[in-house]
Amino acid sequence: MKKRVVVSDVILEIVKWTFLIFFTIATLYPIINTIAVSLNDGLDALKGGIYLTPRKFTLENYKSVLTQSTLLNAAFITVSRTVIATLLQVFLTSLLAYILSRKEFLFRKPITLLFIFTMYFNAGMIPNYLLMQRLHLLNTFLVYIIPGLLSAFNMLVIRTYMNGLSDSFVESAQMDGASYLTIFWRIIMPLSKPVLATVALFVAVGQWNSWFDAMLYNGFTQRLSTLQYELMKLLSSVTNQSQSVESMKHSSSMVTPTSIRAATTIVTMLPIVMLYPFLQKYFIGGLTIGGVKE
Predict the structure, then answer these.
(1) What is 71-218's CATH topology?
(2) In the chain, where are the structural domains located?
(3) Torsion of CA 166, 168, 169, 172, to 10 degrees
(4) What is the enclosing helix (H) or strand (E) of 254?
(5) Rounded Cα distance, 231 and 65, in Å
(6) Rounded-to-integer distance, Cα 189 and Cα 203, Å
(7) Where in the cell is it found (predicted)?
(8) Are strands 249-250 and 253-254 parallel, antiparallel or unpaired?
(9) Closest listed residue to residue 271, CA positions, set 209, 218, 188
């Protein structure tokens, strides 16, 4: 039997796909345009009219960014803080979330409320700075790690996911004599991969993009400067200072604030863009937390 075509359904499909196409274009165009500008000669980019492809191809913008003497050490510090902080925060936050998800834990509600309280009230920048000073964390690498070991928001996200797991897994393991730590490591953690990957992506992006803490706590310690902070200083110096034409020339090309800004943006976002496809399936699964109830 031939399926009947409903006009309203056809119109809905046309509207839906039209919206999705325009949304995709609106999302991708700024990125493609930034890449085109970053690969274009700086002086030529000032004329405008660059859309999807560079008009006068050059790699001098990236050379100006990547040949900075302090960039290699800053990249090492950024990668180190991103990896270490992500692993520690995901593990400790998920461990706390597991404890607060157990119904037999007597104080789980008041402790949860205490963590929620910290989400609404913040002491401010000056008290935080004084706290770091009292803890002797200023001008140290640990100032990037310790303040973010636990996240109240991420804990609630992970706890919500763990609450949706079947208790039969835990009960079976307890009958076999497994301890709480064994249950957490061998059962809860593997079952929570989607939400853990989602949180790990959030933490990694936050650590990778962070520069204000480097400026605030380690601004006078060059060996602990981060990639984002160095790129921010580079961008500020190119934008705000009057540089001579000779100092910006490389062979037949010239870098300008516009071209440097584009190259800096691409260098900053590239590692996260490369990481995302490997976590996409877990990321989508993590975003659907609580969407289906049995």
Answers:
(1) MetI-like fold (1.10.3720)
(2) 7-68+242-287, 71-218
(3) 170
(4) strand 253-254
(5) 8
(6) 17
(7) Cell membrane
(8) antiparallel
(9) 209
Q: How far, in Å, CA of 244 to CA of 73, rounded?
A: 28
Q: Are 262 and 61 in contact (CB under 8 A)?
A: yes
Contact status, residue 134 vs residue 143, Cβ threshold 8 Å: no
CA atoms within 13 A on the CB side of 157: 23
Residue 208, C-beta contacts closer than 8 angstroms, at least 6 positions apart: 78, 82, 228, 271, 272
How far is the C-alpha of 165 from the C-alpha of 232, rounded, in Å? Answer: 44
CA 58, 60, 66, 67 torsion: positive or negative? positive
d(C-alpha 212, C-alpha 235), whole Å: 15
d(CA 104, CA 91): 22
Q: What is the 3-state secondary structure (H, E, C) of 172-241?
A: HHHHCCCCHHHHHHHHHHHHCHHHHHHHHHHHHHHHHHCCHHHHHHHCCCHHHCCHHHHHHHHHHHHHHC
- Report the alpha-carbon distance of residue 71 to residue 77 in Å, rounded: 10
> Which of the 8 DSSP states describes residue 40?
B
Residue owning tokens 């031939």: 2
Question: How do residues 113-166 score in pLDDT, each as one tens digit?
Answer: 988 888 888 778 888 899 999 999 999 999 999 988 988 999 998 998 888 888
Q: Are 139 and 218 in contact (CB under 8 A)?
A: yes
**Chain centre to alpha carbon of residue 90:** 14
Of the candidates 170, 179, 194, the one whose C-alpha atom is nearest the C-alpha of residue 94 is 194
Rg (CA), the chain: 25
72-107 pLDDT, tens digit per residue, is: 788 889 999 999 999 999 999 999 999 998 888 888
